[in-house]
């Protein structure tokens, strides 16, 4: 008996222009007809490889795709039924612990998540519980906890604060200071600070926050006030870039103050969207009361997550990419991306119409803006983004966070699959887009016409 294509009645012939239904369908339809209709509609979505807005992986090898398809029917949480994939998850945690210099990688504490956002919730909760325990032990209240980070934090940290009743103390940006810097910490940290979030790879411009210097500043604060404040590193992108490209950079568990680290396997871990990781430096950094022991489907397990059922595909794919590429392969891929990012950033700066806020030298991503002269002529970053969209490129235009909200930027994220050839085509299109926007806005003024762009 086949379960794949049961005979069903042919659908009614569709009118010449069928409206897009929103009511629950009453009848069955043929699988192929439904598949074709959905596929056609999806053509209207952008092409993911031209999406320079996302840090998410948009290219994977066929073997990894195949493994994802073959494990999509397995529930990651059914460890009794699928012990191998559960073991692969544990092995990935140990590999990351090794990569990030955890004191005892063999007994690493961590788990996979749906992305860095879930990992941030778990890490934030651990910081909160540890702080509460310390306060209670000292006979003090546990009211009004706060967390300190730069205003450039990704929205997941604002969500953490609002979901779990923690005050978000976000240090505003300033011209020339696009992320958290050590000298600002003293003003923002106090005895109710559960932790400082350092970002390895700011979402807004791809720059690394100086994690070692932040730790040093917190050492100073501890000496002066007695407040012992741990650091969580949000390495959504950078924790799977820096170990390969910047091995001398001090940012991970080698720094005793770093209590936990998160990353997105689906960013520079080369797995399609749906995977993150949260790791703690040791079992002490993860309060035991947060780990739930459950008996499920004949097995016993410890879970620490905000979700339950998840497909095994992403863990299988991550295990593949770690083994397939290893240290040397990820270095090769990310070096290519960094080279492409730097080359493209330099090409954009040469157009003489834009200025760079970062140059792709840390994460393979950079932000740029129109020059003041171009703004004075009425050009705007949104117009450039729209004109690029007409060619299929997705380049976000957005204002910077608190402290610099008047500054709009465009951002390019380079990932595996954005080849030097695509970068050259992108630059041509950017030049043409700028020309089109200029013509539409101001005609072609003499002063701009003379530029490389003209
Ligand atoms: C620094 C940072 N943290 C957290 C996130 C959220 O990650 P995810 O999309 O994996 O939930 C992002 C996403 O871009 C990010 O850049």
What descriptive keywords fit this protein?
pyridoxal phosphate binding; Aspartate Aminotransferase, domain 2; binds pyridoxal-5'-phosphate; 454 residues; aromatic-L-amino-acid decarboxylase activity; 7-stranded mixed sheet; 13 helices; lyase; 4-stranded antiparallel sheet; 38% helix; single chain; Glutamate decarboxylase; alpha/beta; Aspartate Aminotransferase, domain 1
Structure report:
By secondary structure, the chain is α/β, with parallel strands linked by helices. It folds into two domains: 64-322, Type I PLP-dependent aspartate aminotransferase-like (Major domain) (Aspartate Aminotransferase, domain 2), CATH 3.40.640; 327-449, Alpha-Beta Complex (Aspartate Aminotransferase, domain 1). It has helices at residues 31-42, 62-71, 83-99, 116-137, 155-163, 185-188, 211-225, 242-245, 313-350, 372-376, 381-389, 420-442, 446-449; strands at residues 109-113, 146-150, 167-171, 193-199, 231-234, 258-264, 276-280, 292-296, 299-303, 354-356, 365-370, 397-399, 408-413. The strands form three sheets. It has a seven-stranded mixed sheet with strand order 1-7-6-5-4-2-3, with helices on both faces. It is globular. The model has no long low-confidence stretch (mean pLDDT 92). It binds pyridoxal-5'-phosphate (PLP). The site of pyridoxal-5'-phosphate (PLP) has 14 residues, from helix 4. Belongs to the group II decarboxylase family.
């Amino acid at each position: 008996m086949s379960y794949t294509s049961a005979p069903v009645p042919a659908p009614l012939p569709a009118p010449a222009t069928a409206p897009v239904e929103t009511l629950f369908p009453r009848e069955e339809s043929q699988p192929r007809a439904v598949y074709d209709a959905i596929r056609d509609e999806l053509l209207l979505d952008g092409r993911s490889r031209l999406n320079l807005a996302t840090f998410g992986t948009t290219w994977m090898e066929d073997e990894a795709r195949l493994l994802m398809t073959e494990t999509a029917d397995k529930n990651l949480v059914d460890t009794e039924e699928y012990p191998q994939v559960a073991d692969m998850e544990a092995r990935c945690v140990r590999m990351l612990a090794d990569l990030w210099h955890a004191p005892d990688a063999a007994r690493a504490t961590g788990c996979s998540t749906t992305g860095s956002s879930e990992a941030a919730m778990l890490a934030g909760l651990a910081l909160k519980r540890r702080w509460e325990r310390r306060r209670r032990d000292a006979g003090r209240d546990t009211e009004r906890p706060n967390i300190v980070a730069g205003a450039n934090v990704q929205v997941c940290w604002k969500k953490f604060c609002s979901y779990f009743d923690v005050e978000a103390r976000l240090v505003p940006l300033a011209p020339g200071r696009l992320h958290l810097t050590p000298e600002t910490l003293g003003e923002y940290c106090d005895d109710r600070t559960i932790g400082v979030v350092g970002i390895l790879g700011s979402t807004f411009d791809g720059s690394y926050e100086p994690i070692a210097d932040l730790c040093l500043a917190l050492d100073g604060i501890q000496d002066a006030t007695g407040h012992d404040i741990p650091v969580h590193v949000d390495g959504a992108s950078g924790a799977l870039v820096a170990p390969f490209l910047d091995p001398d950079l001090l940012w991970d568990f080698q720094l005793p103050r770093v209590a936990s680290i998160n990353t997105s396997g689906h960013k520079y871990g080369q797995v399609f969207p749906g995977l993150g990781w949260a790791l703690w430096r040791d079992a002490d950094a993860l309060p035991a009361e947060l780990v739930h022991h459950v008996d499920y489907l004949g097995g016993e397990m410890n879970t620490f997550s905000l979700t339950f059922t998840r497909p095994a595909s992403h863990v299988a794919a991550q295990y593949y990419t770690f083994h397939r590429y290893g240290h040397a392969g990820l270095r090769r891929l990310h070096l290519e991306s960094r080279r492409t990012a730097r080359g493209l950033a330099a090409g954009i700066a040469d157009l003489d119409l834009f200025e760079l806020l970062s140059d792709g030298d840390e994460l393979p991503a950079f932000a740029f803006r129109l020059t003041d002269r171009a703004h004075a002529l009425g050009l705007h970053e949104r117009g450039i983004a729209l004109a690029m969209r007409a060619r299929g490129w997705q380049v976000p235009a957005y204002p910077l966070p608190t402290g610099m909200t008047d500054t709009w930027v465009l951002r390019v994220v380079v990932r595996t699959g954005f080849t030097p050839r695509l970068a050259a085509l992108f630059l041509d299109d950017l030049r043409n887009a700028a020309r089109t926007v200029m013509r539409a806005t101001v005609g072609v003024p003499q002063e701009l016409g003379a530029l490389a762009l003209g």
